Amino acid sequence: MDNEDNQTQGESAASVTHGGLRRRGRLRSIVWEHFEKKKINGIDKAICNYCKNALVARSSDGTKHLHDHLKACQVKKEIEAIEFPPAKKAAGEKGKTLVETHFNPDVTRRKMARAIVMHEYPLSIVEHQGLRDVMSSLNQLWKPMS
């Protein structure tokens, strides 16, 4: 059985020439988390885990072209768009982003009550205008406890 078959993806090995001797070394670049190294027709190739394109993977070629491929890989971009959707820009407001959240007023009320008890705040704190401003800025649906 070939030694490469016994290694996990993170422990892939590459041939390294050092002092005229061929040795096997660990692939250290972070790019190898996105590629699998295989020999195809006797040539070392890096297979993209996303689009399955085969790129050259000789040790003399470096990994810059693999990094460049990852930046341009459309399949990877589509997967990331699903897993990590971009924050939405607020209409007409430069530099501001909107993050989609789900507000639950019951959870907010319970947490506010817990904070009041834990820190021994006066119950009237919920009537302070400053707290009302903060809470309403977090969500327009927030109403003070009664």
Protein architecture, described:
It is a single chain. Helix content is 30%, strand content 21%. The chain has helices at 64-72, 74-83, 105-119, 129-138, and strands at residues 13-18, 21-26, 35-40, 43-48, 54-56, 88-89, 97-98. The strands form three sheets. The protein has a three-stranded antiparallel sheet, with helices on one face. Strands 1-2 form a two-stranded antiparallel ribbon. The radius of gyration is 27 Å and the shape is rod-shaped. The model is unreliable at 1-23 (pLDDT under 50).
Write the layout of secondary structure elements.
Elements lengths: L12 E6 L2 E6 L8 E6 L2 E6 L5 E3 L7 H9 L1 H10 L4 E2 L7 E2 L6 H15 L9 H10 L8
Antiparallel strand pairs: 1-2, 3-4, 4-5, 6-7
Q: Based on the structure, what is the oligomeric state of the protein chains?
A: single chain
Radius of gyration using CA atoms only: 27 Å
Which descriptor suits the 3D outline? rod-shaped
Low-confidence parts, pLDDT < 50 over ≥5 residues? 1-23
Query: What is the mean pLDDT?
Result: 75
Strand order of the largest sheet: 3-4-5
Order of helices and strands: EEEEEHHEEHH
Query: What's the tally of helices?
Result: 4
Taking the sheet with the most strands, its summary is: 3 strands, antiparallel
Give the strand tally.
7
Fraction in helix: 25-40%
Straight-line N-to-C gap:
73 Å
Strand percentage: 15-25%
Category from helices, strands and their pairing: alpha+beta
Give a short summary of the structure.
With 146 residues, the protein is α+β, with helices and mostly antiparallel strands. The chain is built from four helices and seven strands.
